[in-house]
Design a protein that fits this description.
Chain A: This is ABC transporter permease. Chain A: Its main location: membrane. The complex is a heterodimer of chains A (about 325) and B (about 325). Chain A is mainly alpha-helical and about 325 residues long. In chain A, about 75% of the residues lie in helices and about 0% in strands. Chain B is globular, with a radius of gyration of 27 Å. Classes of the chains: A mainly alpha (about 325), B mainly alpha (about 325).
């Protein structure tokens, strides 16, 4: 298992380098010019100087190499400096945003907590709802509960977040006035009242995100439980005279969780991608919203870094899913 | 001697079923039979057919121009609002109301549906063509397998939504200047969706082809000298059609949602060119006063995707010979 994990981790490096190259070339092909917003009165030679100051004068491979160095060598040094107070990265160039002229990673680090809070809560809520419903639907297959559950998760599957978002805002924020429609990111939790406000403003975005994840996980859990319920070991467990509770909860659920856990891990990056739309609707200033604004502002270093962060998430969670599968299921042997 | 021979003849006669109990059924008849049992799938298929026909024929029946501005008849409410609010500005000449510039919402919905459905169907077709091509090539030619599948894995680990956003925003200008604002965007979005969503289909098709090509009928075809391309066309493709159909339904739903999401985020079609996602996005800013402008396109998208998903569910059951006939 350890060898397998190490091999996968080593293989992830060329994958990530290839992905970064693909994104970089895509951005290079783009016709946008960061000087497009500069007033026309600025003479062309000054504009050319400004372009070169942004590092645009050099050939593509030099630019890519410099980005690699900044991303994988300088940024980790900055992180070490931050934690241990050392001075490795002093005076070294970091990836600079064209919008704010400040290091991209500093902005990303400011934005990540908001995304993590919303996405993380939504995921936990979705898991807590989806798994019991999935298990019970499978246990009572074709019952009213199962049919209703299937129908509801089909709907959750089909309604896109950019529709559920406005819909929930109209119902809960406009008509009922129970919840705020905009996520206030500068809000600080200091006491019980401010905690309640934080909770209230998280409800809507979390609901929108959780609805989709719940629908998906519920289907997986149901299918996986159904597969296990007909197995011989279940009959044996019942024949031994175990209580139905024990048979289902201790035997069936534990075995059917194996594929579901990997699906949960595999879906994490997708949720981050899907959170882009939810963040735009509820004005959560997380990394998804950052990506959208950077795109519209033609801020290529920011777009590059953010897209690459999404790619890292995908690669890392793919490895986690595969390794988890091997750890949980002793029948799976990778070596 | 004669007796025994007569006996044998009679035994054979008794054993042989001259007339089969049931008339022979073809595979597609069985599939249709199983498909009809899945109520959701039949409804889904019916609704998909209905909405596709509606957006094709609709603009000829409801002939109001979607772009026509009628500032006197602006901000009209749908006709059903009159049920509980007699003073509301309603009228049968605009059954679904009008927007802030007096454009008829029903006409816009039909026109927008045309674009959304066209993007969905075309992007799905492109996805299937690329996916099937890569899958069959990788499954059939062992030399291409490793390279193509590594490539598929790589593309699978690309962050699709961010990359789509990046590509659409950055390449909008050159395509729009070449093919016009609508045509350029159309090619762009169909292309992007096609290029970024073929991987699952390719994997499924490859798996099927890997198993199929070891079967006897492929060996027989090869031993009478059939060329590789003929084996693929006559023997492999007809046999992988069922998984392709199932993933096509998923692809259609995903394409419609992606197009609407792009329009919603403001990187889709130009603003005077209605699609369902665009109509929804434009209406969000005034949804307190006019909730129907968000609801109607939203419901159109959701119902279409829901029906496509149900259709896929039914097709999966109907095309799986292990489930069929139970």
């Amino acid at each position: 298992m350890l060898t397998y994990t190490i091999r996968r981790l080593v293989l992830a490096v060329p994958t990530l380098i290839f992905i970064s190259l693909a994104i970089f070339l895509l951005l290079q092909l783009a016709p946008g010019d960061p000087m497009a917003q500069v007033p026309l009165t600025v003479p062309p030679e000054v504009k050319q100087k400004m372009r070169e100051a942004l590092g645009l004068g050099q050939p593509v491979h030099v630019q890519y190499y410099k980005w690699l160095v900044q991303m994988f060598w300088v940024e980790p040094q900055v992180l070490i400096d931050y934690y241990f107070g050392t001075g490795f990265a002093e005076g070294k160039l970091r990836v600079i945003s064209w919008q704010t002229r400040s290091p991209v990673m500093d902005i990303v680090v400011q934005r990540i907590p908001q995304t993590l809070w919303v996405v993380g809560t939504a995921y936990v809520v979705a898991i807590l709802i989806a798994l019991p419903i999935g298990i019970y639907s499978a246990y009572k297959q074709y019952s009213v509960f199962d049919n209703v559950g299937t129908f509801v998760s089909m709907i959750g599957f089909s309604i896109p977040p950019f529709f559920t978002g406005p819909l929930l805002i109209v119902i809960f924020a406009v008509q009922l006035e129970w919840l705020p429609s905009v996520y206030n990111t500068v809000h600080k939790v200091v006491d019980w009242d401010s905690f309640v406000i934080q909770l209230k403003q998280m409800v809507l975005p979390v609901m929108v995100l959780a609805l989709q994840i719940t629908a998906q996980l519920n289907r997986f859990m149901r299918a996986s439980t159904l597969d296990n319920l007909n197995q011989d070991y279940v009959r044996t467990a019942r024949a031994k005279g175990l209580r139905e509770r024990t048979v289902v909860l201790a035997h069936v659920v534990r075995n059917s969780m194996i594929p579901v856990v990997t699906v949960i891990a595999l879906n994490v990056p997708q949720i981050f991608g899907g959170a882009i739309i939810t963040e735009v609707i509820f004005k959560v200033n997380g990394i998804g919203q950052l990506l959208i604004t950077a795109l519209f502002a033609n801020d290529l270093p920011m777009v590059m870094t953010l897209t690459f962060i999404f790619a890292i998430l995908i690669v890392v969670f793919n490895i986690i899913a595969d390794v988890l599968y091997g750890v949980l299921d002793p029948r799976i042997r990778y070596d | 001697m004669t007796e025994t021979s007569e006996n044998t003849v009679e035994t054979y006669g008794a054993l042989q079923d001259k007339v089969p109990d049931q008339p022979p059924t073809s595979q597609w008849k069985d599939v249709w039979h199983q498909f009809r049992k899945h109520k959701g799938a039949v409804w889904g298929g019916g609704f998909l057919l209905f909405i596709t026909l509606a957006v094709i024929v609709g603009p000829y029946v409801w002939t109001i121009d979607a772009q026509k501005l009628d500032i006197r008849a602006k901000d009209m409410r749908p006709i059903y609002v009159a049920l509980w609010d007699g003073d509301a500005k309603t009228g049968w000449n605009h059954p679904f109301g009008t927007d802030q510039l007096g454009r008829d919402i029903l006409a816009n919905l039909l026109e927008g549906g045309r674009v959304s459905m066209a993007v969905g169907w075309l992007a799905m077709a492109l996805t299937m063509v690329i996916g099937t091509f890569v899958g069959v090539t990788a499954g059939f030619f062992r030399r291409a397998d490793g390279l193509l599948m590594r490539f598929t894995d790589l593309v699978l680990s690309l962050p699709i939504l961010p990359i789509t956003l990046v590509a659409v925003t950055l390449f909008r200008q050159p395509l729009v200047s070449r093919f016009g604002p609508e045509g350029g965007m159309f090619i762009m979005i169909v292309g992007i969706i096609g290029i970024t969503s073929w991987m699952q289909t390719a994997r499924i098709v490859r798996g099927e082809v890997l198993a199929l090509k070891e079967r006897e009928f492929v060996l027989a075809a090869r031993s009478i000298g059939t060329s590789s391309s003929a084996i693929i066309r006559r023997h492999l493709l007809p046999n992988v059609i069922s998984p392709i159909m199932v993933s096509a339904t998923l692809g259609l739903a995903a394409a419609i949602i992606t197009e609407s999401a792009l329009s919603f985020l403001g990187v889709g079609f130009p603003s005077d060119f209605p699609t369902w996602g665009k109509l929804l996005a434009d209406a969000v800013s005034r949804m307190e006063a006019f909730p129907e402008r968000v609801m109607l396109p939203g419901i159109a998208i959701s119902l279409t995707v829901l029906s496509v998903n149900y259709l896929g569910d039914g097709l999966r059951d109907a095309l799986d010979p292990r489930i069929r006939g139970r």
